[in-house]
Write a structure and sequence with these properties.
Number of strands: 16
Helix content: 40-55%
CATH architecture of the largest domain: 3-Layer(aba) Sandwich
Distance between the termini: 37 Å
Number of domains: 2
Shape: elongated
CATH class of the largest domain: Alpha Beta
Largest sheet: 7 strands, mixed
Strand order of the largest sheet: 2-6-5-9-10-14-13
Low-confidence stretches: 10-23, 342-349
Radius of gyration: 22 Å
Oligomer: single chain
Structural class: alpha/beta
Number of helices: 15
CATH superfamily of the largest domain: Class I glutamine amidotransferase (GATase) domain
CATH topology of the largest domain: Rossmann fold
């Protein structure tokens, strides 16, 4: 089965600028397709831009799926149809390089015609974006030398070792350094694309797009790649449902007795199982989830530190500040100053 991607501009005409309104020049986004690439690295950002077109009321983006060959097999087993590489007369505003398997990345770098096009596009595009291991293609071209960058957590050491001139950001979901943007693995490409929409069309449009895509949070680039609830679930699969039960109750007065009852255990058995599964007593597990949630909320400057404390189950803001500083090495206010920036995390719904 071959999916004909072609060009998708959301059905609108004309571009959009939050200050100037509609224009006749949508931002041309070229997403590179190549064999053995990660499907979501391309599809995720494309969906964000397509939804932004609809929300902006016109063609803010002209998204093209381009490649050196007409059909492109992806890791997921789905084959995509690519448009020919655009010529110099069709300049690209934003170039997106998805990640893929090692042999797919190597084939891109060995394709001389494709690399000539890549070099010209990287030089002339207003923005150059890599998703996941797509950073290795930009790195091999020298486009990341002297810059801050990130990639999938499983490949951070490899990127740092092979390309010592790159300042590898190990915690970030995505990194902006000048006109070069790089993101961590797979789903973080959606976060990066939302940040681009917020930059182009404003945070209100980005928030609307996030709601349309049923995202829980618009995450800032400084957010860690490692989500505490997911990490805890992977450490304790036997009690994984406990994390799902606790997450919507972080602002409640939850006792060990409540948790044990929800899991259908005695308090003694529950405490023992919790220590075995997570290496944490039930109270410490709850505190870890609350503080991780607080870290995300602090990236939204519209929510006061006191309100963040309350939403995370802390009745005493001073106790919250002490616990947060002990966990993350910075006070809530200092953390916000360092990570909130101009791209806040926005809770959805």
């Amino acid at each position: 089965m071959v999916i004909d991607t072609g060009s998708m501009d959301g059905g609108g005409v004309g571009g959009y600028d939050k200050d100037m309104g509609k224009t006749a020049n949508p931002r041309r986004v070229a997403i590179l397709l190549y064999g053995n690439m990660q499907l979501l690295d391309a599809a995720g950002p494309a969906d964000v831009f397509g939804q932004a077109n609809r929300r902006a009321g016109g063609g803010a983006y002209d998204v093209m799926f381009v490649g050196p060959r007409r059909t492109v097999p992806t890791i997921a087993g789905l084959t995509l149809a690519a448009m020919p590489l655009p010529g110099a007369r069709r300049p690209v505003h934003t170039l997106i390089v998805p990640g893929g398997r090692r042999r797919g990345l190597r084939a891109v770098l060995d394709d001389k015609r494709l690399m000539r096009w890549m070099e010209r596009s990287v030089d002339t595009a207003q923005r150059v974006v890599s998703i996941c291991t797509g950073a290795f293609i930009l790195a091999a071209m020298g486009a990341l030398n002297g810059r801050r960058a990130t990639t999938h957590w499983g490949w951070l050491d490899v990127l740092a070792t092979r390309f010592p001139d790159i300042r590898v950001e190990r915690e970030a979901l995505f990194v902006e350094d000048g006109r070069i943007w790089t993101s961590a693995g797979v789903a973080s490409g959606v976060d990066l694309a939302l940040a681009l929409v917020a930059r182009d069309l404003g945070h209100d449009v980005a928030l609307q797009v996030a709601r349309d895509l049923v995202l829980h949070l618009v995450r800032p680039g400084g957010q860690s790649q490692f989500a505490e609830p997911l990490a805890l679930q992977s450490r304790g699969p036997d009690l994984g449902r406990l994390i799902a039960w606790l997450t919507p109750r972080l602002d409640h007065a939850v006792s060990v007795a409540h948790m044990a009852s929800a899991m259908g255990m005695s308090e003694r058995s529950f405490h023992r199982r919790c220590m075995t599964a997570f290496g944490l007593a039930p109270g410490r597990l709850l505190a870890a989830l609350r503080l991780d949630h607080a870290r995300a909320l602090l990236c939204d400057r519209t929510v006061s530190v006191q309100a963040v404390a309350a939403r995370c189950g802390f009745n005493d803001p001073a106790a919250f500040s002490t616990a947060f500083a002990r966990r993350f090495g910075a006070s809530p206010t200092s953390f916000r100053r360092a990570f909130a920036g101009g791209n806040p995390a926005i809770p959805i719904g």
